[in-house]
Known about the structure:
2 helices
Amino acid sequence: MVIWTNNAISHITEFINEAREDTNKVAKSYINKLVGYVDILETMPE
Length: 46
C-alpha cells in the first residue's frame, strides 16, 4: 500500500491550484499519470 504524506498531497494540490486556466487540462493529465504510477507501485513486490 502506498501512503500519500500530507506534504505530498499539499504539493500536488498547490500545483493544481496554481495552474493557469489554459494549462488546466495538462495539469490534470499530469496528476492522473502521477497517481497511476503510484498505483503501479502498490502492485510491486516488496
